[in-house]
Amino acid sequence: MKIPWREQLILNPDLKDMRTWPTVLEPLRPAAKIGFDRNRRAVKQVLQGATLRDAAKETGLSIGRISQLLDRCLSSESDSSPALLGGLIPGKHLVTKRRNAPLPTEDEPSGGTGAFTRLLGEVPGLKAGLDKTIEHAVRETIAGQRLTPAGLHGEFKRVLEEACWPKDVYPYTTEKCAYESVRKYLHRRRLELANQKLITRQRASVIVGSEFGRRALDEVQIDEHLIDFQGKLILDLNNKFIPLRTARATLVVMIDKATDCILSYVLNPVHTASQDDLLELFERLLTPWKPWSLRHEGLSYQVEACLPNSQDNPSFLVAKQYAFDNAMSHYALTVKDLLLKKLCATTNYSHPASPLTRHLVEFAFQRLNKRLVHRLPSTTGSYPTDPAHEARKNRNKPPVITYQAFEEALEVAITAHNVTPLARLGGSTPLELLRFHQESFLSCRPLDPLDGIHHWEPLTTTHSVAVHRATDRSRYAFVNFCYARYSGACLSELPNNDKSILIAVNRRDIRKVRAITKDGVLLGELNAPLEWQGYRHSIRTRKTIMKLVKKHALHGKDIMAGYLRQLIDNKHHPYCAQQIIRICSEYDPERRGINLYQDEARSKSSGFKWSVSLADRRH
Known about the structure:
By secondary structure, this protein is of the alpha+beta class. Helix content is 34%, strand content 13%. The protein has helices spanning 5-11, 30-47, 52-59, 63-74, 115-122, 126-138, 149-162, 179-204, 275-285, 333-342, 359-371, 403-418, 430-440, 539-550, 559-569, 574-587, 599-604, and strands at residues 2-3, 76-77, 220-226, 232-237, 240-245, 250-256, 262-268, 321-324, 346-349, 460-468, 478-481, 484-487, 500-506, 512-516, 522-527. It has a six-stranded antiparallel β-sheet with strand order 12-11-10-13-14-15, with no helix packed on it. A hairpin with a 5-residue loop joins β13 and β14 (512-516). α6 (126-138) runs antiparallel to α7 (149-162) and α7 crosses α8. The protein is elongated. The chain starts with a strand and ends in a 15-residue tail after the last helix. Residues 202-212, 446-454 and 592-619 have low confidence and may be disordered.
């Protein structure tokens, strides 16, 4: 029994919302696409409560045609589902044609209309076998195969052979044994299975309300991206300027979901982001932003361009929930302790291989690649013959753009995005909308027992260590941390029954640590051995050095200077040049040993003018 379209809406009220209808996957010709869009507008107006007459005036169709469209997409038999969007495609046959005449033979040839459909019904197990093969391929089961029309045609002929189908009957009467019919059947069944898969997925993912229903800082998305750019490092070594090619750096971005405002970012010359990069991301969020002194020609901030933490109290930027992916650094205990204990927030780790759950931060990387990164000639490309790949003759030469110039260009591009009006925000800029939400709605302040933002110290972590007391009283007691012994006179004040203490470590400078009792009493500072006191260094650097020591690739009394000398000896390797930037930034935060602004070296480079607002030339 056929169900009319009006009764179908009564039985299934969810069909009134066209967002729950599965998407049409089959490609449409330009003329058919125009007619399809017009039909969809007419049906949508009726489903939203308009009369047939009003919809006819709006779309230029007749009342009878609109009623016919509603019948085509919504009416169906009681044991089948409606065609929905498929019924709005102009010229699409919704009812399969049936052949009443017998199949053509060599003695009695006849037309081939409907012959393949009738053959599927007459040969036992033919349709079920083809459908099973296609379903395994579409659903990517363990029994599936990389199915092609030729492969399915071979399965088609094998089933006919097993069924002992006569050799003088269709499809053997055709030139290619119904190859074209099998090809069309494969594509049609693939679309049908894909539509069935989308029905439940789209109904479950319908968004009720608009984007403006969300509030700022309800959810913040965080992710890292390996920048597709290799820059130049000018090493000032013994008053000699040596240009080097660096490896790719990693960019970590934090973006608000409701306002699309970039809250903080970190660019580090490393191949993979670690927990230290995430902690530095939060430290920059909780530290008032100051504009850079842009030194490269053509770079300047837009009017009012900045990061949102330019205000005096950045604690208003603490979000309720932080969305991560499944990278190992995101599961670090230091990151969880900062978010759950200090910032009183929650974490959301998405399912594997589902980047659309953090679509805003992924789109932010795409936007930066399009406007900045992929405009540079030293990109790596997606494959060896990619047209976007750097020319072979230039791959062994240092690029024109220095690493510091890229850092400044990235700063300008990110701050410019925060003051650019967006259509999805109703013409407002991300920064304006964020501040409007902060002024209009009650924000969730973190409940930290200490008063003041500077007491949080994201890069300062605590560790519980055992206290080792020497039998000789002339020697200080010590604790072991990160491959070294830390000692100090303050441990002598510790009672003998205390076997362990807490140490507060600044992860960027571990030459000294603070000793704290289990009761929270500050004892004093503990110093690392003298061989680790020469240069300021981080936990990551010490672990890297100790890995080389275990491999017998590094030795000597002054191990810190030896590691830097090893990097300089291999300075022409892009990875070593990248590490020189990172190590010198730790040893000397002012980078006095790295000359990135040398006028002599800059004058020899090409006259590349930086401007983020230029037309996008590469992507």
